[in-house]
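Entry for pyridoxal-5'-phosphate complex. Fields follow.
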Amino acid sequence: MHVPALNALTQADQELAGLIQGEAERQHDTLRMIASENYVSQAVLEATGTVLTNKYSEGYPGKRYYEGQKFIDPIEELAIARAKSVFGVDHANVQPYSGSPANLAVYMALAKPGDTIMGMALPMGGHLTHGWSVSATGAWFRAVQYTVRREDGRIDFDEVRDIALRERPKIIFSGGTAIPRTIDFPRFAEIAREVDAVLVADIAHIAGLIAGGAHPSPVGHAEVISTTTHKTLRGPRGAMLMSDEKHAKALDKAVFPGLQGGPHNHTTAGIAVALGEAAKPEFRTYAHQIVANARALADALIERGFDLVSGGTDNHLILLDLTNKGIGGKPAARALDRAGIETNYNTVPYDTRKPFDPSGVRLGTPALTTRGLTEAQMPQVADWISRAVDAAVKDDEPALNTIAAEVRELLAGYPMPGWH
Ligand SMILES: Cc1ncc(COP(=O)(O)O)c(C=O)c1O
């Protein structure tokens, strides 16, 4: 059953309550391996489900356009103070509705439409909002894109520097959405300084690893840091922008009134709770366990003949290239889902297949680490993945059902926040 209990909701709207219960049960019974997902704590769930959702608060603490901010102001101030302390930054804005609007605010603060901006290409592991053509950031700016090396799947800093010197971008985005390796922020900063660009670190995926000391911090290297709050950081769906004092005003103005109206105060409270959790010693253990699990899983997958982009992982994420297994990423992800293992199909660098039917599957360990799984279970997880991919190739539905039952049995021993 969902916790907190859905008593009033069940009475008022049985249909919807049933759907939420179903999703909670699905999350409980599934090995959730989508690299950008997690389980928030019950405390975060409670904070986001409160009367704070009733309140309008356009503006910032102490400078609002609506009355009645006696409790909202200290809530937002708490979230800001905790963000500053956890990440060691001068300035934090906790109002962006999500990662994509946060990145749009970065552009609004630092560039004008038509300016040259630079980011990693989407099929190489970058995010849509780093200038990919179908995104507003690719349509409204002159986007130039860097890649990874074909041989080893790593960022080629000679190429990054060459493009930057030639194109003189105003902004350089570092970070991405399918990068299994440590981001070298000092190297990016060197290049940005050389061409007088502002370096932005989009740490959406790795924010929790940075907070927990399991990935180097971009602070002191990137002038602006953008992050979601709901991935490894294990907070509610939302985002934050952080910076030194130099960019603080422009970023705040871009978020409100530039792009948004009233902040989502219930989300702000959830972010404050999550940041409070991230400041605790247990979170350091959690962040390091995510990486240890990903490494152990990578080794176990390689032993089973899987081809990993870049040959392994340094963080929470593994990108499988399934070409040698004779199956596309999409049918593999679908079969894995039927086997109780939730992933997403993903392009791999230099993919020869189409984006809707690419060669890869992306895996992540943040959620299963929250459930309490350790390196000890990773060979078993790799074995299930391997059996499920083989079953998909052979169209063996009963084998997928058997794996799903085994997954359910294992997970029954690992509590899920939000479920009892
Ligand atoms: C690196 C990166 N930046 C930005 C975003 C956008 O976040 P949202 O989906 O909350 O808009 C994502 C989402 O996956 C991401 O991976």
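NOTE: The chain has two domains: 47-278, 287-411.
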